[in-house]
Amino acid sequence: MPRGPEFTEEEIPLPYTQDLLKARVVGDSKAPKIPLYDGMTNPYDHLDNFRYAMEGRGANKATKCHMFPTTLKGPATSWFKRLTPESISSFAELRKVFLERYMIISDRLYTANDLSTVRQRLDEKLKDYITRFNNEYARCEG
To answer: Could you name the domain of life of the organism this protein comes from (predicted)?
Structure first.
């Protein structure tokens, strides 16, 4: 029976910096039991669920980074795999790029600080970025 390609860790680069990859993982290393995120629902709800699940485990920031992709599925997993290798050095950065990608799906009002995270994607045309930015701006408070 034919088998699909087998990959080693080196062939599928992670987006984490070397310091983060070498950091000691602390706490329960089992995947959190929360609904998997596919990119179609509110990303803030997913981040809240993830935070609640990880707080009781004594997880440090490195553990959160390593566990976060286990809570993704489908298009969200594909997005994670496309992140630039060695571009993420903290969970705060991972959270930021996650929200940059999925914030538009949120139904909450944004603050000016939230709006500052909206950046043009590498593969996004300027016109599409401006449209997306204006849509986010329209949802800002005040």
So the answer is: Eukaryota
